[in-house]
Fold:
Amino acid sequence: MNLLDIRNLSIELDTPNGRVLAVDRVSLSIKEGEVRGLVGESGSGKSLLAQAIIGVLEDKWHVHADRFHWRGIDLLRLTIDERRALLCRDIAMIFQEPMSCLDPTTLIGEQLSEAIDSKQLSGYFWQRKKQRKEAVIKLLHKVGIKKHSECISSYPHQLTEAICQRVMIAIALAGRPILLIADEPTATMESTNQGQIYRLLANLNQLKNMSILLISHDLENLTHWTSTITVMYSGQFVEAGTTEQIFNKPMHPYTRALVDSSTKANLQLPTKSRLMTLPGSIPILQHLPIGCRLGPRCPRAQQTCVSAPKVSNFHGHKVSCHFPILHESPRKESQKHKALKHKTVKGNN
Amino acid sequence: MLTFTLRRISLFIFTMLVLTLLSFSLSFLFPGDTVINHSGQINATASELVQLNKAYQMDKSIVDQYGAYLTHILNGDFGQSMASQSPIRNEIIELLPATIELSLVALLIAMVVGIPLGFIAAINHNKASDNVILSLAMLGYSIPVFWLGLLAILVFSIGLGWLPSAGQISLLFEIKFVTGIQFIDILLSDSPYKWQAFSNASAHIILPACVIALAPATIFIRLSRAAMIEVLAASYIRAARAKGLSFQQIIFRHAIRNALIKIIRHVGLQFANLVTIAMVTEVIFSWPGIGRWLIESIYQRDYTAIQSGLLVLSCFIFIIHILTDFIYAALNPLARGNQHGS
Structure:
């Protein structure tokens, strides 16, 4: 069963020149126990989508959706407060730049303990404080912080980014979430720390069967940790499928370009030749192209691309393109080749 | 924390040195003889003048003269008032506490009223209440204080008769002078009418304190509104919302402390402004404070009094400034560590 099922979610921004469609009808579904990656360049609306799911966007953003189901409950029928109460219980989120997401004037221990719901504690009110502290220490151990007493009694600026991110994960785990949204959790970290954080998330997924929505711009790195991937470009849905489908047989020209631009794909290039990239850069919010937003940069674009493509489904591999790159199996290819040959021979005769 | 304290103390000492240098140079700049400006003895005989010249080392270099002046100041000898020929030191001890009392009460009123209003405006950002509070703040800031003082006397003392219009306390009560701060003296005294005196003194302070507090309060409204808007847009507030905290929890546990930190720094700066307003208000409400005394000295060309009055008032403002710095450090863990260049 789908844990989260979102169909055609749009996010609009109020600007002085009218409303701008920042995220244009994106669909996303997450199954129980799955790690789904959400990939796109910076500015492609990944973080917006995540914040819209958990409901912490500011008032200037307007969110619409055709369907927004959480574990079979239609969230669109609930009021905002009911929705928030439900989602904050079941979904937790960790952000980019963990240092700025912790209150600089409050001790780590306090910030952690206030995330623990008092319903989890048993006992009388005079026992609560001790239980709370024990729960905090347990959470810190869970995310791999051994020096818990030092960590509890320090302020965020006294800790490193990686420890802060672990604290953020601990705060997220305090509510015992079913889904964890990790919005570029390692954006400002060194690669050794990045690995630690990703391993921690993978452990949580395997041991606690927690679903994770992993947001990143780094497709190659993401393939190590995810089972399914959704690709976004400039606020539009591009492609979704299993990690193998996306990485080995991308059907959308944008995903193709993303895969080709990774360092691994560029290893065979001769020295001093240009790296594989798409021409141009991601359009700014004020000047979005009509139709498929990749249009001006797309190598396969044709006239029909000025209207937005519909999502087509190839055995669970969803792609939103008028001219997808179709990979056919080798057997089918040879059959086709044979048929073609046969035709030409016939023609000669 | 120790280095922080030492840093503040050294800053205080050096600032006071510069201030004494300024008041020292005023004696040369004011018309009249320098040594008479220093000491304030306008009717000195020839032999007394010789003595004064020796005491202030007027025959030696200017550095020695400054040293002698500094010694006098440090010994608490500010000279005599040219107008009344009584030692300035005694007058300051009598008058300064009244000003401290009035300005601190006014500061308290300004903060207690201004900061919560600013927070309310920020929480209801771009709504009607925000606009109402902001326009009231604008209006309050533009009212000149002397006009407001007179208007307040006209309405509340003469028209409605609720509050007394002048003085610190009714003359009926005899309160012995201990600290000079009226409320503390009343509490220390063993008069049987202690509490009547207390309520009378509070009735006297309300009107001038409110008049002084108006302009700073409007500034605090704007400062706290801006600080709160900034804090509410910060990513740790968004993270706290994602944590599942209610709006009240976010405001009371996270937002208010962080916003207060941003405001506290400005309190010291605003205090100088507040004391200036207090000086004018003291004249209007006949408050026996140092501000009124200083303004009278200016009218009477009492140069010695002007010098010492300026020195004492600026010292007081600076002490408040340092105190707010300490409160800032107590609230903000980031300021307590080793920071360079502050």
